[in-house]
Amino acid sequence: MATAGKVIKCKAAVAWEAGKPLSIEEVEVAPPQAMEVRVKILYTALCHTDVYFWEAKGQTPVFPRILGHEAGGIVESVGEGVTELVPGDHVLPVFTGECKDCAHCKSEESNLCDLLRINVDRGVMIGDGQSRFTINGKEIFHFVGTSTFSEYTVIHVGCLAKINPEAPLDKVCVLSCGISTGLGATLNVAKPKKGSTVAIFGLGAVGLAAMEGAKMAGASRIIGVDLNPEKYEQAKKFGCTDFVNPKDHTKPVQEVLVEMTNGGVDRAVECTGNVNAMISAFECVHDGWGVAVLVGVPHKEAVFKTHPMNFLNERTLKGTFFGNYKPRTDLPEVVEMFMRKELDLEKFITHSVPFSQINTAFDLMLKGEGLRCVMRMNE
Ligand code: NAD
Ligand code: ZN
């Protein structure tokens, strides 16, 4: 490739300050260093995690920064030591990596790579502690090792899943975070039995993907919980059989769910990021066998509080990043589920805009409208 080894100038959406609209700037993207890959991003979507770190209300502010982690692209060039990927390969970046070498990567039970697990406060590459993005020499920080709100970005090879080149990147880009996370949270972690009752807290894209997982597992009753009453209509397409809005009740929502289900739900999956919803999700599961899984990214200072008796009564609380999928090993197979039409992604993509309109995607997420907004980089 003519650009290999050279600095590439391209457009990126830069967050200069917390909560201020992103601005499209010309950035310089340095060539990939050892074990790194430069990727041409074709499509990127917005996940609520990007919004939390842009608002930086309950998170560490790291600015100026290029956010974005849900995307699909093509390898432009590779750095020294990269043998698994070549220019032209189709890839999905993942915010948590897989080095394939550490104790976690070697364990069947974990996807929390020692080297490349999510780090929300680091704004530089792990190899040399530097950023690959500059504007007139001024360093711009990375975000969770992906920074996909840029036409080109540099990513550690361990944070890239090589996928089937026939898979349409404008659709499968949403598997790079939210949809795989929700799906895996149910299928790999909550593991509901056929005929069981599952509660899903938060009916955004992540929660509805968790719901899709519950439907696939054969759950017979799926209760959606959300503060936004408009979320129910959409959720019905994902198998939602009952809807509870905590605002419609004077008692805590966990009590409402326990009453509705004669003792509690078999499984609960929390996809809100709100600590009270996390507590409710745990306290609404049935004693003896109930399992609750936390997925939402909490406020930095959040504290989870519950009575220990809730555990003694044989309830289980778990949490997960990326639905426990190992990004490089497992994500290509999730893409194949889509290719075999076992997983519909189109219903998650409610909006699509040119990259220049990225702030529209933020507005939609803040208003709670739609699920995923895919941005087209080449427009
Ligand atoms: P979203 O904003 O589209 O959806 C969140 C939904 O939760 C909204 O519909 C909102 O109305 C609802 N909600 C908020 N507070 C609530 C409460 N107290 N009770 C009930 N409902 C409530 O967001 P999303 O993109 O679907 O992401 C969901 C969460 O998952 C976020 O916290 C995000 O950061 C997190 N996330 C985690 C991982 C992971 O690997 N663990 C990966 C991706 C996203
Ligand atoms: Zn590892």
UniProtKB/TrEMBL annotation:
UniProt domain Alcohol dehydrogenase-like N-terminal: residue ranges: 35-163
Domain named Alcohol dehydrogenase-like C-terminal: residues: 205-338
Documented EC number(s): 1.1.1.1
Assigned GO CC terms: cytosol
Pfam families noted in UniProt: ADH_N (PF08240), ADH_zinc_N (PF00107)
Cofactor(s) needed for function: Zn(2+)
Keywords: Cytoplasm, Metal-binding, NAD, Oxidoreductase, Zinc
The protein's assembly and partners: Homodimer.
The protein, known as: alcohol dehydrogenase
Species: Lolium multiflorum
